[in-house]
Specification:
The protein is mainly α. 70% of the residues lie in helices and 0% in strands. It has one domain (7-185): YP_001051499.1 fold like (Up-down Bundle), CATH 1.20.1590. It contains 9 helices and no strands. The protein is globular. This is YjaG family protein.
Amino acid sequence: MKANQFQRHLAQLKGWRETAFILALAERAYPNFALFSQVVDFPGANAVATCLEQGWGALVEHAEEDRYIELLEQLEENVPNLENYDMYGAATAVSFCEILEQALLSQVNTEKRRASDTAQNAFESVMDFLETTEGEGLSEDELVKLFDQSPLIKREKAFQEELVERLRKESVPDEHVVTGLRVLASDEGVSNIGISLDEE
């Protein structure tokens, strides 16, 4: 799919489709948060995981705005404070929380379109990871080449395109649809930056 076509289709996602798109991005990034939580024994891990789970549930149940506000408050109380953790994993955990926040906000402030910015942020998370792990000492041109050739970038692009196409074909966010989206997003437990808890 050409970039301009993808951006046009992405911009057309509204209502539950936009929320589902962003929730799927969060689902994909969740192993990053889970690994961080496991390493540091993060006390808010279960509360944040519940927010993701119940975010999907609220979509299926066509929940009222108040439900999403409750989840936002719960999430906000349990986001890791980067000042307390001197490790890269904390940044990926916070990035996951920020994506999840945008998903929940999309059902509270429905006037603002969030899918395009959040999709770009998801790409930037992958690029940040590549720059951190493989980009030391590279020039700007070499970084661009690294990004262009990276399997992680190509994988993220393919995922987002398939996700948009699926959402365009669905009419309601029932359990069957949501289960399919979550399976697609989780990609057998491998996150957007290639993290898998099964590797532990």
